[in-house]
Amino acid sequence: MATFRDTLAQFVLSKDQVKAIIDGLTDELVEGLSTNDPKNITQQPSFITRLPTGKETGLYLAIDMGGTNLRTAAIHLLGDGQVGVTMEKHEITHALKTGTGEAMFDWIADCTASLLKNVSVDMGNSDLHMGVTFSFALHQTAVNRGIVLAMGKGFDLSDVMGRDLKDLLETGFARKNLHVVVSAIINDTVGTLVSHAYVSPSTKIGVILATGTNAAYIEKAAQVSKYKGPVCDQMILNTEWDAMGKASYLPQTKYDKEIDAVSLVPGFQEFEKMVSGLYMGELVRLALVDLIQQRAILGVLQGQVPESLQPRLAFKTLFMSTIESDSSTDHAAVAKVFKTSFGVEGLSDQDRSNIFDLIHAVGQRSAVMAAAACAALLYKAHGSSLDLDDASEITTIGIDGSVFEKYPHFSHSMLKALTDILGEDRTSRIRLELARDGGCIGAALVAMISHSGGAV
């Protein structure tokens, strides 16, 4: 039991550890405003200088390329804050993720053609304008242009890094005889911020908590010294907080370090590897393997790790969600998951309780670290005192992603952690709101904004 308790304690963050995360992320947010180091991909200007008004109208195409799926959409902006959406979703296979750039962008064009057929859009020889949400690091050079800097989340495409995304997409469209012009390129967090501001004007921060994690917020343009474009008052920044995090302040366990060491790019996205849905289940698996080998858990296995639990990513974050959703006192879901997915039976009451506690601790740590990152953004946007303009002002954080939406109690845990960090008075003026489909709707809105002079 002592070994198990020691392992569990590694995932429980102290107030000092949380403060170190906030201070460290804040320092990196400030550093990212001025650095021109190509290796530092944080604080990327979006070239978007205002939020939508709700009066925008027109038909726009949109694609949202994330870590798991490609979504294509025809977005009808109807004015008065109303939107009509026709959307298709396509799984991005491992073969596509690790193949050639040409194959990937031909596939995207094929998916777009499928959408156009579904909505019966006859393009003729006229161009349709598209907004693109791209959930990977870009060096944005204009509202519709960006150089691909890095791709995590299992992607390893050839002939893509260092190239302009607009050219890659439009060349693929041309190969498929589609008259589509890329009018806007945004990150998924920028899309979340823009689209949620469309329905909730108090939105100042957009966050993704899904396969990966990232955030965007509104910054005074004068603070962004690395921005050399046309003069503007404010700018939405893509923080790329996934790529932040240094060993000096991140409370990494040996399991976090192992995940980083065997990843495609060790030393990259270390914050994300401690927080996001892609890695939460793997953290649990590594801890379980270690505890089984030390005979500190699952005594029925006598220290032998079952083959079914040995492959990387074998313990899915979905299993964590299933187990935490079970409110029974005997944690019956633990036994069911282990029997169904790993062929392990005969779990004792103590085993089920311990496994539940381990899973809860990993999920809780993710929520606390996400809250700490939000606190860092609030401090950066409002100053260290976090004084808002008046006591009645509300700041909304729009959050998209399966972890925030579907993981049991995650939103509640985040809000509780924010209260512990900021105090009840400040937290009472902060709203955490679910923001769905921000990628496609946000991309279409930005394409519209760019036409009306709200981008540079």
Automatic annotation (TrEMBL):
One GO MF term attached to the UniProt entry: fructokinase activity
Domain called Hexokinase C-terminal: residue spans: 204-448
Limits of the Hexokinase N-terminal domain: 5-198
Pathway the protein takes part in: Carbohydrate degradation; glycolysis; D-glyceraldehyde 3-phosphate and glycerone phosphate from D-glucose: step 1/4; Carbohydrate metabolism; hexose metabolism
Protein's UniProt keywords contain ATP-binding: yes
Enzyme Commission number(s): 2.7.1.-
Keywords, comma-separated and alphabetical: ATP-binding, Glycolysis, Kinase, Nucleotide-binding, Transferase
Gene3D superfamilies membership: 3.30.420.40, 3.40.367.20
Catalysed transformations (reactions): a D-hexose + ATP = a D-hexose 6-phosphate + ADP + H(+); D-fructose + ATP = D-fructose 6-phosphate + ADP + H(+)
Entry's Gene Ontology cellular component terms: cytosol; mitochondrion
GO biological process, one term: glucose metabolic process
Family according to the record: Belongs to the hexokinase family.
Descriptive protein name: Phosphotransferase
Organism whose genome encodes this protein: Dissophora globulifera
Gene: GLK1_1
